[in-house]
Amino acid sequence: MKKILLLLALSVSTMAIKAQGQSAEKQAIKKVIETFFDGLHKGDSTILKSTMHKAIKIQTTATNREGKKMLKTETREQVLTNIANKKPQDTYLEKLLSYTIKVDGNLASVWTPYEFYYNGNFSHCGANSFQLFNNNGKWEIIYLVDMRRRQNCDALKNKK
Questions:
Q1: What is the DSSP string of the chain?
Q2: What does the pLDDT look like over 68-119, one tens digit per residue?
Q3: Could you tell me which of 34, 43, 64, 131 has the fewest CB atoms within 10 Å of its CB?
Q4: Which domain, by its residues, includes 41?
Q5: Separation CA 86–CA 39 (nearest Å)
Q6: How many domains does the chain fold into?
Q7: Domain holding 84: CATH number?
């Protein structure tokens, strides 16, 4: 009986340690995403760049006014230049509604539904999908695709 209790206690302890380690890993990944948006909100391309792998791929999908589905690809340099050239009087606020983080080894996937405000006014909503790579101890964004729409944004709020 003592052996069974000891094995049970060891199993529970191992599971708790593993969950705690994974929680710390998810917090580190969430911090990268928060830092990314901190740079976006401040218009600071240096902060933004610190979160991105040098080979990042960045895409946006949306539906145009004619109802056609569009996919736009930008380079890391284009995004950083756009942020660096943001007018100081312009404000960007991307309000993340939730985080879903999945981790397997050195790969992480993060899903973040959002609402975007430009100069304090609602602009659009959608979702971001981030792929991150643990580059020898530093999580970096290797892929980002966001979906944008101007309608049916209340549905996102209900999925929180």
A1: -HHHHHHHHHHHHHHHHHHHHHHHHHHHHHHHHHHHHHHHHHT-HHHHHTTEEEEEEEEEEEE-TTS-EEEEEE-HHHHHHHHHT--TT--EEEEE---EEEEETTEEEEEEEEEEEETTEEEEEEEEEEEEEE-SS-EEEEEEEEEEESS-THHHHHT-
A2: 999 999 999 999 999 999 998 999 999 999 999 999 999 999 999 999 999 9
A3: 64
A4: 2-158
A5: 12
A6: 1
A7: 3.10.450.50
